[in-house]
Specification:
The structure is a single chain. The chain has 151 residues and is of the alpha/beta class. It has 6 helices and 4 strands. The chain has a single domain, classed as Response regulator (Rossmann fold). Strands 2-1-3-4 form a 4-stranded parallel beta sheet, sandwiched between helices. Strand 1, helix 1 and strand 2 form a beta-alpha-beta unit. Helix 1 packs across helix 6 and helix 2 packs across helix 6.
């Protein structure tokens, strides 16, 4: 059973969406893997996802409303097999906490599941309006589909 962590800055937009989509895909296939999400910052600890992301996800049949933000911690390297980050800033913040090469090997950019080794960012939809949230949904959905096919 794989244990997968999705990470963005505040854990209220991109990573909760990635967690929700991947969990839904895993459930649809009758698999039993663990998926969670976290943020590199402490800005939103304990808060639900951004309402705009909740609505975008619901529009596509994914409910992320019960999730609550938490901060990434070093112990996550011990528990999770794969840690997917949303952009290069998240990558730097997570890998800065790596204790060894084994930790570092677990970390990858989420969109590398679509375009390997390109390290493309999942854009932050915060200021992008409804269209920005839809764009993020499409990118994250495609990446999660590719990930679930490897489980």
């Amino acid at each position: 059973m794989a244990k997968i962590l999705m990470v963005c800055l505040g854990n209220i937009c991109r990573s909760p969406l990635a967690e929700g989509i991947l969990k839904a895909k895993i459930n649809e296939r009758g698999l039993s893997h663990i998926v969670d999400s976290a943020g590199t910052s402490s800005y939103h600890i304990g808060e639900p996802p951004d309402e705009r992301m909740i609505q975008t996800a619901l529009k596509h049949g994914v409910d992320i409303s019960i999730q609550r933000s938490r901060q990434f911690r070093v112990e996550d390297f011990d528990y999770f097999d794969n840690i997917y980050v949303m952009d290069s800033s998240n990558y730097k913040n997570v890998t800065r906490q790596c204790r060894n090469n084994r930790d570092r090997e677990k970390v990858d950019h989420l969109l590398n599941a679509i375009n390997p080794d390109m390290n493309q960012p999942v854009p932050d939809p915060w200021y992008g309006g409804e269209e920005g949230f839809e764009t993020v949904y499409s990118l994250v959905e495609e990446a999660c589909e590719n990930i679930v096919q490897t489980l």
